[in-house]
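Appendix B: complex inputs.
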Amino acid sequence: MQAAPFHPPQRTLMGPGPSDVPARVLAALGRPTIGHLDPEFVAFMDDLKRLLQHAFRTANELTLPVSGPGSAGMETCFVNLVEPGDTVIVCQNGAFGGRMRENVERSGGTAVMVMDRWGDAVDPGKVEEALEAHPEAKIVAFVHAETSTGALSDARGLVELAHRHGALAIVDAVTSLGGVPLEVDGWEIDAVYSGSQKCLSCVPGLSPVSFSPSAVEVIRGRRTKIQSWFMDTNLVMGYWGSGQRRSYHHTAPINALYGLHESLVMLAEEGLEAAWARHRRHHLALRAGLEAMGLPLFVAEPVRLPQLNAVSVPEGIDEAEVRRRLLQDFDLEIGSGLGELAGRVWRIGLLGHSARRRNVVLCLTALESVLGDLGARVQRGVAVPAALAVLDR
Amino acid sequence: MQAAPFHPPQRTLMGPGPSDVPARVLAALGRPTIGHLDPEFVAFMDDLKRLLQHAFRTANELTLPVSGPGSAGMETCFVNLVEPGDTVIVCQNGAFGGRMRENVERSGGTAVMVMDRWGDAVDPGKVEEALEAHPEAKIVAFVHAETSTGALSDARGLVELAHRHGALAIVDAVTSLGGVPLEVDGWEIDAVYSGSQKCLSCVPGLSPVSFSPSAVEVIRGRRTKIQSWFMDTNLVMGYWGSGQRRSYHHTAPINALYGLHESLVMLAEEGLEAAWARHRRHHLALRAGLEAMGLPLFVAEPVRLPQLNAVSVPEGIDEAEVRRRLLQDFDLEIGSGLGELAGRVWRIGLLGHSARRRNVVLCLTALESVLGDLGARVQRGVAVPAALAVLDR
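Resulting structure:
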């Protein structure tokens, strides 16, 4: 049996996630494993929960990292809140709204779809119409920051709208948490899920979630059992709840949680507002460079995410070849378009630790070089100065 | 916002898992994160799958690590194979059979329970009776190595029995994989799941699973949609299937997979048979020491697991106080009893990397010291020599 250790290359990660992971977080992963019921670990869990509450800006007791990736966090929100026969208004303006629909339907609910063009924000007018047409709707679900397009929706307004019609709001904050303002309590979000590998710059595999007291009440009042044992928050809270007495539900992913904790400590050290401002500053610099080069951003300015930049592929350029060369020659990863944007855009992430001066400069330099080699009509020598002018303003 | 890095204590892990994690595996966790669609990562996935197939002794194409803990792997097996209305014979001889029942019922199936005493193996006679009484049964599900008691069941015989009655077999190999013989192809197991943090000595958080071609056929022929989007093997295989073309399903837990890969490389280097023999040898040594001290094992010899040893708590001893002192004075973790064995046994794990001479000696020495201090009637000074005599035989 041939078997050899794997030594990954050292990439710069500027796709839609995972983002660059700081050395501090990588080092935390390798700290000694302890038991999931060790008193030291129980104290650690309390601290981790406090840090998650800080990042989400919430006092919700039911705040914890789901032991799986963002899609497990998404499913945790839906299977706990949706019962067979429930109507859920699902807003789709990219790939992830489609996944929400799957979640609703597989939970036995009916999804009423509110469709917007990929790259646009969710249109509150259409959501209001859907709520008026479906007074039985129990939940409105939408994506705050669409990872597939780079569009930001007005979470505060959409939650208000849902509440005005007596519905709960489930918010996908996978790409927004830590990158743009997100106020779980301030906006009265009922259920929210995120991912560890985006603006938190931890490794992939964990999904922070939070449920409001109203959402918890709805879960407690269910007529039917939650269809997933693994994701049943009633059971999970026996382990993640307060106090020294924790009952075993499943073995927590100890070392991954060390990494998440470290990334949240770094976020607390920087401050949430400072992190939002850093994402915005580096986005403006990247944009200035791209535009100077002649590469327009795909999403309209008012709803453009700073941390995820969809860039239109120039006519006649094989976008996959560009990504292949960036990876091969510069060890730089950027993302392809997803779904109906496949082949039409690249997605350049400035997520978390990737929102740094060196990343912006490398990305612009490498793009300029590769596009030039492939004969694209790009302006040479102007992108980096334009970006630095923004950063040094 | 107060925030400080977490520095865990350095424990010796001899509970029911997580087990001691070798330095090589901890170091692998901290290697540079790369993208889940990076060509280097795709090649790595193929190698990881090959190593998993080796550990499971299978050629099953549908062999992969579920991106969640063992209970997510369990649920993956049940939600893919059980449809509403299906009858599943669930064997319960400890805590985890009960969890299987939950999985069957939440998938809309009917669980026919075959109950055995905690600490006994599953009784094939009772399973046969259940199969005769329920000719409609689609699946027989049982735990190979019961982590809650330390009893080993005859997986080969039970699978044969299921097949003779036209049923599939789902096998819980969470604690057996890597510790005792497990032959997924040789025994014709249809679906099997395990955990990373037991005899593989990786960190917790991943669940290797494997499905036979017959199981895949049953999944393909379902009348209803799989209730979990996250666990739907039809979708997951778009990412974990063969070839260079992988479609994104969810972001893989990259760094955790580095750790699992390293642990499987170590297993391949040692050899599966050698790993089984090492578990058995250290178990016999631990047993000799415990018996010399006057501490009997709870499970009868013929069905006793080497890697998980349930030890009867002496009369009048507060078992929790013993564990507290072992942790405090020796940084040694052993497990408590679960469910109906709570307070009656300790569970001493010799899982994976914990099946070492130094662990056996530390555990016996520490137990002798703590039990002596608490006034238990244990023989002093005989346990370690008895254990070493076995190891040096």
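The mean pLDDT of chain B is 97.
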